[in-house]
Structure formats: structure tokens, C-alpha cells
Amino acid sequence: MDVKNFNTIPETLPIKKIVKETDSIWTFQFEYELGSKPGQFVMLWIPGVDEKPFSIAYDGGDEFWLTIAKVGEATEELFKLKEGDLVGLRGPFGNGYSWSKGEHLVLLAGGYGAAPLYGLARAAVEDGCKVDFVVGARSDSMLLYEDRVGELGGNVKYHAATDDGSKGHKGYNTEVLEEILAKESGVSQIYACGPEMMMKRAAEIARDKGIKSELALERYMKCGFGVCGQCCVDDSGICVCKEGTVFEGERALGFSEFGKYHRDSVGRKVEW
Amino acid sequence: MKLHTNMANLKVNFCGVEFENPTVLASGVLGVTAASLKRVVEMGAGGVTTKSIWMEEHKGHKNPTMFGTEHFFLNAVGLSDAGIEKARGLFAEYGEPAGSGAENVRPAPVIASIVAGKQSEFADLTEEIVKLQPDIIEVNISCPNVEDEMGIPFACDLLQAAEVTKVVKRKLDELESKIPMIVKLSPNVPNIGRIAKACAEEGADGFCAINTIGPGMVIDLKTRKPILANRVGGVSGPAIKPVAVKCVNDIWKATGLPIIGTGGVLTGEDAVEMMMAGATLVGMGTMVYYRDAAGFGEVVQEMDKWCDENGVGDVGDVVGTIS
Question: Do the chains contact at B80 and A266, CB–CB below 8 Å?
């Protein structure tokens, strides 16, 4: 896959390993030098079925992971595949997150957002950063990546928030974010990945505290590389796939559609 | 937005519509929303074409729908669109025609691309589109990606192409509309000049040529599957420019009518070449894959530079000057 030389024909490769996080959330691991940065995504081709964008959960140089939820037709078919079966890959696309060495970062994950933020946490920790990793989910069985985050060592603290109170704080992960910011004064940046309304709240909290934030926006995509125009947001008209998917919180708050609507496969506005 | 040095005149009049420069965003690229179209104008395009509009919602094909190499681009998006209702919203957001005195004026001319499955359906669609006051109507009868549903494109058959042109022209006359109407032609025919002439005789004011070539196909060696979900798709990009230039020249010789020359144009020199072949405006779509939307401003600067270096004071003087 040589995106820099304009080659975006999918590269076909076998699934190396499948790790079942839950019944409906699996991590697909590949042996491949993807060359991605935390926060980027790939277009995954399920041959004969469909091709969809997925955030990269982790890129270890010679391997990378995608953590995917079985939510529709395409992922139903993907979940029928076994280790050794072939899938196609285009990418990496998107701009990725940014951080500096030795900073104190707070990562806020809603549901599946925990996976790409894990990749960020792991890279940030290697840069000497201190990380508060906050995950929100409906119940403790849906809290992703808790063990893996635990393995990142003493500089990473895992906080859980569950709707039903089965683990950690009973309520929203944004409430945990507010608690952390109330106690800690040296937080450099907040990163949010998950449902748009959660990310909007996180950006507002960050703005109130005068702290920078980065959000990973999600929009319907066809090409992933800035041509089809499906993922363009109002009213700036920029493509989420090309100038994002990661945007500074202030900038995202300035998009007229952010937190209000997105568009479907035929370009119709759909409210969140 | 003026990005060029303004040493040569780059303004062009196409069917009575003024363009600040000869570059136009081709249909199917960055044309789903008004915000995206406006951004392309900010980046330097002289005009923009919407993604093809249907009367009713039309789902496109599943993915993969597009990918490219340094030589060519392949797509089978399948003319996805939300229908005329969404188009109304797009036009309201994009702005009112120039000279209307309205507060929200369009940043540049907008070409409404319209598409239908049956010739007769073009009549009602034309009526609805006229209400939105596009600067130009582009009749898309040449998409090669919907053969499974719609059969061979109308543009590949002289009588069918002429019939669609007649239906649209008749409706425009009935509505006493002065909006120019151009037909987007297909290169996948033995004699594009003859088809263009037939459309001209039925009232076309001009043409957009060419749509994509083929259809073409790319097969993945490991799975042995064609990559596009539609299996086949239209070919665009640098590899098709020679075919596009020749087609534009054929249409020019056959009709003498204004043409938006499209196909494989990536640079200012490519654009000049297209104009020499007979194009008055130059459409670019796949160029965005190689140079981003910012490529529009760069191409305009390159055209300006070519004009300066070659003693051309008005870029319009180049049209049809192939010897």
C-alpha cells in the first residue's frame, strides 16, 4: 500500500489472529508494516461484501490491530471469517493525534473509542507522558481494553464509568473527566473518542478549563481519501477523512453540524 | 477568489454565464454538499458541478467504490443521491444567482447535473431543477456504472441521446427558461461527433465531455475477485487524457458548440491542451485525488503562466486553435 505514490488499490492480507473481546467485539490482528500513527484509520475490504473505515487500535511497527463491533451486514460477514482468511486494506488515512513528550494527558473513551485511544496511550507512555484513561460503557462487561491498559504500567491510570454502576463511577465518563480536572492542575490535553455528543461535552469541558482537546470525528465515508465528498462537514466543507478525523476541540465546536447532524450514504442530513 | 497574477485575462463566458477562470469542478467529486462546493470555489475553481441529482432517492453501490494508481483512477459509486428534496437544500445553502441582488449570492456559477433512468423522467426532473435556478443544467446520460440497473447509457446510442436532449429542451422551452443546457457525453462510442451533432440538432447549447471510460476492471490476484463491489467501473485520471482531448476535438469539429472539456486534466498545460482541442471550460474531478482541491488554484496559476510565457493575452483566444 503506497498512499504517497497514489496507489490505493487494496492490499490483500490474511487475518493473523482474532481476539474475542466480547461476543460482539473482536480484535483482528495483522502482520503487516502499516506505518500508521495513533488516530489514523484504514478502509477494510471484506471481499465480496463491502469496505468500511475502521480506526487502528494499535500499530506496533510490524503488526497492527483493528477492534471491531458486529453491528451490521458488513461486520456480520467479517465475523464469519477465520484466522488465515483474506481481507483487503487501504490506508492508513487521516491525520492522527498529536502530543508532546512528558505531558499529562486525559483520554476519554466512549464504548468502542477505547481501542484507538489505547494506541495513543501506548505511544504517549513511550514518550514519557502520564495518562488518565477514562472509559465509559453501559456496564462492566462492555468496558474495553481494561487489561491491556493495565499492562501499560504505572504512568497510566484506568478509570471506569458505567451507566448501571457495575464498575467505577455510576454515570457518564465526562463526569469522571470533570472530577480529574478538578483535582489535577497539570493536564496538557484531553482526547475524546466515542459518540459525538460525548465528544462535544468533552470539548466544552476542555474549553471551560482552558485546556486543549482533540476529538476523533466519525462520518459516513466512501473513499477515505478526500474525493467522494461524502464526509464533508458543514459549514466549512472540509473532508473529515483528509483534514481529520482528529480535530482540535475548538475547531470541531465551530463546525455548524457538530453535535447536531451528520449525513447518510446518499448525503441526506440525519440528526444525532 | 483571484489567485493568479492577473497578467492574462482568464475570464470566460460560457453560454452567457461568466466564469472567473476556465476551471470547473467535475460532477461526482466533492459535490454532495453546498459547503463542499463553496470550499472548492475558495480553493480556486471558476465553477462547480453538483453530484448528479435524481428525482427520488437513489442508493449507490456498496464499497469498494473507488481507488487509484499514479496512472489511473477507477470508480463505481453508482450515482448515489438523496433526491430533489436534498437538492433544494443544497441550492438554498449555495446561494442565489449572481445579479439577483440577494444577500446570499453564489460564490461562482453552479452547474446542476441531472440524471434519470428513463428518457421521460427527465421532463419532471428538469421542471424541478429549473426552480432551483442553476446557472447551467448538465444532462448526465453517460455514467458507465449503472448498467446492471439501467442498461447501456443513453449517450452510447445516437437516437436515445437525441431523445433525452429533446425531452429536456422541450420542457425548458415550455417553462420559457433561459438556463443553458449541456449534455454530458460518453467516450465509449465509435463516433462521438455524430452523437454530439444529433444532440445539437435537438437543442443542446453545449456539451461536457467526457464522462469516464470503459467500464474497466481491476482484479485482486490473491482473492481473484474484482475489487469494485460493482465489479466494473469508470476509468478516469491521467491515462484517459488523450482520449478526452480527441473526443473534445471531434465534438468541436462536429458542432462548434461550447464544451466543458473533462478527462485526465491535472495541470495548467493539460487545461490549455483541452482548450486547444475545442473546450471553452475545463472540468477536473480526479485531479483532486492527485492535487487536492487546492489544485484548482494551482492549475489556474499554471494556465496564467503558460499564457504569459506564450504571449496569450486572453485565455479564450486558445479555444479550438488546434491546427
Answer: yes
